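ping. complex inputs:
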Amino acid sequence: DTEVTQTPKHLVMGMTNKKSLKCEQHMGHRAMYWYKQKAKKPPELMFVYSYEKLSINESVPSRFSPECPNSSLLNLHLHALQPEDSALYLCASSQDLFGLARNTGELFFGEGSRLTVL
Amino acid sequence: AQSVAQPEDQVNVAEGNPLTVKCTYSVSGNPYLFWYVQYPNRGLQFLLKYITGDNLVKGSYGFEAEFNKSQTSFHLKKPSALVSDSALYFCAVRDSAGNNRKLIWGLGTSLAVNP
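pong. complex structure:
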């Protein structure tokens, strides 16, 4: 069983809707990630938070807005999405961010939120 | 530049036979190497990692991988495949040099184990 919990598992939204994806971990990890994954492709990094601060933004369009309310929670706010944004959105956490505290550890992924934009 | 290659899109193996999923990498410093598995309609699960030390790494579900520095490879292996091993497998690498904080992912290999 995954220790990273994502909700909702499935989401269908129109291009004018506003919705949010949520992620929670209770492993005491200080780095949290959002990835986007298309079918049978590797995950694409979107955002990384380290100690609740945005550390990496991979030039993601502003219609995706991340938020880290505390060290256990990570949100992804969605607004005015396009059909090509339909994908599996994966949240992950790690003990620390690569390059900090020399963390070499693995990522723990949630089961993902499957998003369909109509 | 860092890169990871998984030369096979698809690997087919009969149940009970040994399996190998190949991965080669290119980094400037020492590599930190990872294997992840993704079962249908699921998230990614960590299988094993190589950071330093013994070249043969053992991981979850009976999988192991051998780090070969001279061939810059990190192939995933299992002595006896199960039908339940059928999934998408990703190799990933991080370069220990510099301040790069991102994993570089291979394109994935779909493993099909036939009964």
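DSSP finds no helices and twelve strands in chain B.
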